[in-house]
Amino acid sequence: MSREQQAVARARKAFETGRSKCLEHRIHQLKNLQRLFTEKQSVISDAIKKDLNKSEVGTQMYETLGLEGEIGLAIKKLKEWAAPRPVGKNLLTISDTVFIQPEPLGLVLIIGAWNYPWAVTIQPLIGAIAAGNAAVIKPSEVCVHTAKVMEELLPLYIDKELYPVVTGGVSETQELLRQRFDHIFYTGNSTVGKVIMEAAAKHLTPVTLELGGKSPCYIDKNCDISIACRRVAWGKYTNCGQTCIAPDYILCEPSIQDRVIEEVKKSIKEFYTDNPKTCPDYGRIINQRHFKRIMNMLEDSTVAAGGDNDESDCYIAPTVLRDVKPEAKVMQEEIFGPLLPILSVSGLDEAIKFINKREKPLALYVFSSDNKVIKRMTEETSSGGLLANDCLVHYSVSSLPFGGVGNSGMGCYHGKFSFDQLSHLRSCLIKQLKMEGVNSMRYPPHTAKKLGWARFFILQNVDLGWIGRMALLAVMAMVAAVVLQNYLL
Length: 489
Description:
The chain has 17 helices and 19 strands.
């Protein structure tokens, strides 16, 4: 057996022992995971510094702080999430116990991404643990140092049989995808997403795909342009633009393009000084392959700010492009780097048409002080998430589902959504062997009178208190007696 097969087999066997289903075991694992981020923060930060040039404060702010909050929420709410969920009934089932019982799916494969290697790998793991699953964790090989640290640290804090870490590149991932899982969770690009989905289809395995795409940002000419550009610049250049929900491009009217450029330039200087290359808060492109990919996008566009670069250091300065054409190279794929194209539109109508002609993005941003503009953008477009007058921060709200639509992905996670996504919500109905008179309406021979009774009992949904249910049961008992006496004939 290969190393990947062995990891999968051990995790499956560990799940079959049933220990991951115990709520106390789940909470214990989550608390241990929480302890990891307290005790090993410096180790985590050092590795990410080597991979992406993130500062220790930046690592905590954008990687581990959210995970600590997510774990705390799961520990606090787990008993509530895992409890049977009562549902409404019709008259035919009024005396029955009807509920939804969340249960673990089984063995989950989590394939992480390199841009936020802890955040987007461990957050699904939190949901998998909370839901009572086993999980094979495959960190991105692109973040070499972080993958190694993850492989070393996770087995020291959480059950290494239930939650093994498998490192490696494409061949190791392909070997994992040949194995049978009960759910696959992937964060990355749509090209690989299609490969994941094809592999999952062989076993009818459900998938959660967090993909990305070109997230548009419309700036209304009547908004506070200074604040809007400050927030866009923060959202765009955080992590050197390597964020799946970064604003990919700006749509605005030609009359405000120069103002937008100047305000973005001011914000770049404020955030990253006159020389971002020496600023500890400005990151680097992950590797030279991605450096070249991003630089190739500049060929047919006009640089309005930035553009400085150093291939040996994988450095590309925060860059703004003006008068960009829809057919430009930079508009043909997700940028995933610190280039900010500005495209001119005549107004809101053209902006909406422009967005709707393209694939549905993971995020959509609109800056306006006019609620009618925001409402139209909300109602007339489609995206994984929509945020008005800010960028990125919807990711931090655990009560909001985070996920894509169409080409930007399927499924969602965060908070209770992670728990539900990685659970089977089992439908349960517990009936007693009584009241056969009422139940006999479904038995042959079928008659018009039986159909009439069936319509009455099945189509009436009820939501009664305890006293109401008792009164209704008494009435139903009398009806059942009459029905049984007349045989529904």
